Amino acid sequence: MAAITCLVKRTPSLSSPVARAFFSTNSHPAREDRNVQWVFLGSPGVGKGTYASRLCTLLGVPHIATGDLVRNELSSNGPLSSQLSEIVNQGKLVSDEIIINLLSKRLAAREANGESGFILDGFPRTMKQAEILEGVTDIDLVVNLKLQEEVLLAKCLGRRICSQCGKNFNVASLNIKGENGRPGVTMAPLFPPEHCMSKLITRSDDTEVVIKERLRIYNETSRPVEEFYRSRGKLLEFDLPGGIPESWPKLLHALNLDDYEEKQSAAA
Ligand code: ADP
What we know:
The chain is of the alpha/beta class. It has a domain of 164 residues: P-loop containing nucleotide triphosphate hydrolases (Rossmann fold), CATH 3.40.50. Helices cover 49% and strands 14% of the residues. It is built from twelve helices and ten strands. Helix 4 crosses helix 6. Bound molecules: adenosine-5'-diphosphate. Adenosine-5'-diphosphate (ADP) binds next to helix 4 and helix 5. Adenosine-5'-diphosphate binds next to helix 4 and helix 5.
């Protein structure tokens, strides 16, 4: 833990755990010689996990979601479990030290898994995390997914997860009228297939009080991270126009990947 404490207190160095984990498989290869290294930002409930995981399947890169790393650690009943459960169930952020420790372990597993590139989802979430990441690898693009707060709340409340396959679904049917020049939003529910139906669970942090706290903390702590990447010309702002059927093709277009899906399936 001492090394990690140093890591969050000082400027990132190449001897830090996260740097070692990155450099074990990636010694700054030229961008054209490697897979994408992207970050997905956005408020709780915006759909980072859904879109990041779809893109990862398309591009053949690992989807590394720090929220999943936290939940795995929680369910492992390891030494950090009770501490993490208290933090997560209050909607607070886990400390930079713990997150970097979990992320370093996941990154170190990339070599054994034969993985290259990545899409990070839910990291960085604080300025400190952004500075550490900046110090250890090149991020090509940061996608900032956006939805209005009313929709975010309803989406989190409607979220269900299959306890067996881990897939996310949503039982909310949204039809929010546009007002004051803001467009309306319609989203159909994303129901699970029959075999997941009896295994659906709700995340313990998806209660109204906790969601509101997570949104508050996102606005306070993560907005500066958006600015950090905006000022570096890496931020792609993407206003989700609706649910997956409307948003997915538009997102592919914004990422210059319109034909990619067809080419991939033709080549398969
Ligand atoms: P959401 O984006 O819906 O809030 P996530 O699944 O990304 O949820 O994260 C769940 C919880 O895990 C967060 O509320 C927070 O407690 C913790 N967490 C995830 N990523 C980070 C991070 N980068 N830094 C600190 N805490 C994190």
